[in-house]
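Propose amino acids for all 147 sites.
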C-alpha cells in the first residue's frame, strides 16, 4: 500500500524537476518583462478500475480544499471533475475523477506541497484506494485568462 502512494509522488517530483530544467532557457515563465504570463496546471487523475472506490463528496469537500489551502496566493483556482463517459461508445472510462490546481508558479507549488506531503498522503485512504496519475502542464490558452 505504501508503494502505491509513494510511486505517484516520486513521479510528480520527477516531472516537476524535469519541467523546471526545460524552463531555464531564454525566457522565464511569469517574468514581468514582456513575456506572456501562463498558468501551470497540476492534474491528479484517478484511473477507473473495476472494484476500486472513490468518495467524490469527501474529495470535493475535504481533500481538495485542504490541499488548496496549502497553496496560498499561488493558487488561481482548482477544479474537481467526475468522469462518467468516454467519447467512444462502449469503451471503459479512463478516469473516474480528476482534480486540478491552476497555479502561477511551479516552484511555489512544489515549495508549498513539500512540507505538507505527509498530510496529503495520509488523507488518500479517506477517499480512495486508487493510485493517481499526475500530469503537470502549461496552459497555452484559456479564454478565462487570455482576455
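Proposal:
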Amino acid at each position: 500500500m505504501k508503494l502505491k502512494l509513494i510511486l505517484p509522488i516520486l513521479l510528480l517530483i520527477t516531472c516537476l524537476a524535469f519541467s523546471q530544467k526545460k524552463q531555464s532557457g531564454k525566457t522565464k515563465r511569469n517574468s514581468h518583462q514582456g513575456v506572456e504570463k501562463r498558468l501551470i496546471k497540476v492534474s491528479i487523475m484517478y484511473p477507473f478500475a473495476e472494484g476500486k472506490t472513490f468518495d467524490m463528496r469527501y474529495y470535493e469537500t475535504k481533500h481538495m480544499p485542504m490541499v488548496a489551502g496549502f497553496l496560498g496566493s499561488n493558487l488561481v483556482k482548482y477544479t474537481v471533475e467526475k468522469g462518467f463517459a468516454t467519447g467512444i461508445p462502449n469503451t471503459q472510462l479512463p478516469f473516474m475523477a480528476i482534480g486540478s490546481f491552476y497555479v502561477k508558479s511551479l516552484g511555489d507549488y512544489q515549495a508549498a506541497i513539500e512540507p505538507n506531503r505527509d498530510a496529503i498522503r495520509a488523507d488518500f485512504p479517506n477517499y480512495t484506494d486508487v493510485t493517481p496519475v499526475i500530469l503537470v502542464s502549461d496552459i497555452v490558452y484559456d479564454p478565462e485568462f487570455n482576455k
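The two ends are 45 Å apart (CA to CA). Residues 2-22 form the longest helix (21 residues).
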